[in-house]
Structures are given as C-alpha cells and as structure tokens.
Amino acid sequence: MKNGLTTLANRQDTEHAPLDLSRLPLALHTKVDQAKSQQQHRRSENTVKSYLSAWASFVDFCDSYGFNPLPASPEILMAYLGQEMTRTFIAQFNGQETARHLSNSAIAMRVAAIRHFHIEHGHDSPTYHPEIIKSLEGFRRNQTREVLHDDKSPLLNDELGQLVTVISDNEKTLIKSRDLALILLLRAGAFRRSEIVKLKVEDLAFRLDGLEITIRFSKSNQDGKKQVKWLPDDEAFSANDAIKQWLEISGIESGYIFRSITRNSLALRTGPDEETPTLDPPVLCGADVNRILKGYLVKACIDVHRFAAHSARSGFVTQMGSDGEDAMKIQRRTLHKDLRMLSIYNK
C-alpha cells in the first residue's frame, strides 16, 4: 500500500534528485538506508488509502482536460476545486432523497493529497497559492451549502446493556469471552477502533481497584508519547473482569489482546490465512470491530444504521456527561487535547 503512493503519483520523470551517496564512505551507506526505511511510517494505512482515492480523483480530472497532474498549476487546481466545491450528490436524509454538497473534510482531504504528492516528488505545491487559500477559507465559511452530517448515535447504557445480554447468550465460549471484553473495553475506555486493536498484554496493568492501560500511539498521538488511561473497577459496565477472563480463557500471555478465532470457534487462529495473509498471529482490525458491534446490534434488534464503532466513544462521553461527571475526568479517559472537541462528542 505504501508503494502505491509513489506508483500512482509517478506520472512523469520529475522526481527530486536522489541522495548522492558517493559523498559518503561506503560504511555509512547502510546507515542512510536505515534512516530511509523509517519513511514508510510517515502515514497511517488509513491515510494512505484516503490519499490514493483523493489523488486518483484529481488525476482523472487532469486527464480529462489533457493536463499533467504532477506538477499541477494553480489554475488547474482552482478549476478542480471549483468542480468539487459545487458538486452535489444524492443522499438519504430523514427518509427522503436530497442533494448535498461535499463536506469541509472531504475537500480538505483532496487538498492534502495533492499537497502530499507534490512535496513527495520534489515539487512546489499549488495548494499554497494565495487564491487557493482564499477559496478554501471561503468554502469553509459558506453557510449556503447543504452538507449532510452523518452523525451516529451514542452507545448509551441502555443499548450497551442489551448488547451485553446478547453476547452473554452466545454458546461459543471463546467468541463470547472475546467479544464481551472487546465491546465493554471499547466503551469503558472510550477507544477508537484503531486504538483498541493495537492494545497488547504488555500495555495492561491490573491494580487492586482498577486497570491502568498505556497507550503507545493513537490518532492524536502519532509521535508515541506515553499516555495512560485509568479504568476503575466500580464503574457501570466495567470491562476489567471481562478482559481478565478473556486472557485466561484464550491463554494469551503476550502480544496483541484481541485475536482472530478459527472457523469452528474452538481455538485462536495461529497463522495467516486468506483473510489476514500478512499477520501472524492473526489479529482483529478496525473493520472487524465495526463488524462485530453491528452483528450484535442486529441480534439485539437495535437499528444498526444509527450506530458504528465510534458510537462507543461518543457514548462514553455522553453517558458520563449525563451522569454529572466532571469534564476533566472524561477528558482523561478520552485523551482529547481540547475540551471544545470533547463537547462535540457529548450528544
């Protein structure tokens, strides 16, 4: 996937000049390669996918008018943004079809992708042109646009209780134990799905009255600064006992906490297969978290379209706020840097 960025962007031989290693002694060439190998970690997999999709849109636009996308002129970029800023699509809203414009984030992603590919290949980015910047500022503040905000409902205690009941009725011990720990921890820890699948046994520290979880990396912590979440045992729908039981039943003593299970539901998968060809042992991914949650929503006869995995995070904030908990306490769990952003999660 990382190589796809270079392949898609490489429309002509205009990349910046490579490093001249002839200036260095041969013994240092390996050191240079070691430094360059770190570049693969500059973008998350989800960001890579988004950039590829956004860049492909711009490439198609340029091709249709006979322009080269790399490097692109500010004029062709302005024309492209004019198309995208005024483009409408049909969406369902309150049971009716209605025309909607692209959101601020959708346009911002297109601009970020174009900037990325230009910088990646040694070109000045047209996204920095004053006319482009002014147009983007105006687009963000344009109140005449009709934008569809597909906000999901928060997963509150009522819905969570129904999910716990459905999960507990599962006769397959491994799946029941894993999914109960997964769903409860997702809500109790106010985790993003991308964060919970990366948790390892080494990140957990069970104390007398709660669980301490160390977060190594997250969406808002790309630099790996140590962050800690404290989950007390006495909260409603505490995940702590469920996690202990899952680790005991599964026999997982180190490494990733949430693993894939064999088709017969009798054991953990121990090697790669068609679904996870590069993971050993196979672990859950963010899409799996969403799939598992939605599966139990269906079984609990809850409208699956109202919820997604992120509903657990907003559900924690909303429930704690409704229960009168202090905003700073909630922030320590969600690890939001800005209380204004935290308020958006309180539905």
Automatic annotation (TrEMBL):
Domain Core-binding (CB), residue spans: 26-122
Organism of derivation: Shewanella sairae
Record InterPro entries: CB, DNA_brk_join_enz, Integrase-like_cat_sf, Integrase_catalytic, Integrase_recombinase_N, Phage_Integrase-like_Recomb
Domain Tyr recombinase as annotated: residue spans: 150-347
Swiss-Prot/TrEMBL keywords: DNA integration, DNA recombination, DNA-binding
Keyword DNA-binding: yes
Superkingdom per UniProt: Bacteria
Gene3D superfamilies noted in UniProt: 1.10.150.130, Intergrase catalytic core
Protein's name according to its UniProt entry: Tyrosine-type recombinase/integrase
